[in-house]
Amino acid sequence: MKAGVVHARDDIRYEDIEKPVPKEKQVLIKVKYTGICGSDVPRVNGDACHFFPNVLGHEFSGTVEAVGAGVTRLQPGERAAGVPLVPCMECEDCQKGNYSLCRHYSFIGSREFGSFAEYVAVPELNAVKFSDEVTFEQGAFFEPATVALHGLERTGYTGGKTVAVLGGGTIGMFVMQWAKIFGASQVVVFDIARERLELAGRLGASAGINTLDADFMEQAAALTGGKGFDYVYETAGNTITMKMAFDLAANKAGVCFVGTPTRDLSFTVDEWEKMNRKEFTLTGSWMSYSAPFPGHEWELTSHYFKTGALKFDESFIFKKIPLSQIAEAFALYKTPGAVKGKILIDSEA
């Protein structure tokens, strides 16, 4: 089969490799789409790849081609989305259902061959079935959608409250939608790009606030009667928005850092004291799993994509690029700001 194989830094090649055969309790998926994740970029354009040669790709969708012995949950011909984490299932964290915290895990598309290929073999539990009403494009977005839901729930989220989402990227748009699905009284998206705020409105946000506006904090205060937001989700991993979360939080709020930071972060005494005086709870979120594996995050994503309550906008996709041109796809990331949305690699093109 054909695959995009990483041989060294800045060296990803479209070439022939051996087609996998599903082992016991494994399924073989004929890949349709794989999204390029931000974590894939330094593995190709930088020095973050675990080994060479390697086949990356972990945000994928496709069709079950064949099943190994003992598989009961899926059948050939069914549509499936890939679940990338392969926990050990034996350590203390796994026994508690905290699979994201497993220290002995494998990961499809980084620690073992992934879906930048025509086929990928994965454990049965790492393929989530979805209906024909859900597109393969949506299937490739299961992983980011589940990350958003897991982050929402890290605060002990309950409906009927006000929610601020900092960052209008893909994860932020999904956090906003999950908050609405589960009963938020108000969800406000904060971003610096007008088109992202307009998209938030189309997807159901109560309001959008441009943080480049000089009076954006006054706009935010007006929406909550000066109380601040009951829940604040930082999804950009940006120093500015991470500090902004402390200002927007209400007394006794739940604050979650979902975004992955890229630089060191420090707080002044006055900034940090906001957490003390407001007594808000600050937590982080990592991946998207719960018991029984892979978790309700994946089941609910499949369900709400099917019903249409979890909306998908074509603007989430920046480009669809054939697997044969995967080197050109990663080259686009070398120009800052050139990629505006998700690149999907099409393994069938």
Describe this entry's structure for a reader.
- The two termini are 14 Å apart.
- Helix content is 26%, strand content 27%.
- Helix 4 crosses helix 5 and helix 4 crosses helix 10 (296-307).
- Strands 3, 4, 5, 8, 9, 16 and 17 form a 7-stranded mixed β-sheet that branches. It has a 6-stranded parallel β-sheet with strand order 12-11-10-13-14-15, with helices on both faces. A two-stranded antiparallel ribbon has the order 1-2.
- The radius of gyration is 20 Å and the shape is globular.
- It has helices at residues 41-45, 92-95, 136-139, 142-153, 170-181, 194-202, 216-223, 239-248, 269-278, 296-307, 326-331, and strands at residues 2-8, 11-16, 26-35, 59-67, 79-82, 85-86, 106-107, 119-123, 127-130, 162-166, 186-191, 207-210, 229-234, 249-257, 281-284, 317-322, 342-346.
- It is α/β, with parallel strands linked by helices and 349 residues long.
- Helix 8 links the parallel strand 13 and strand 14 (249-257).
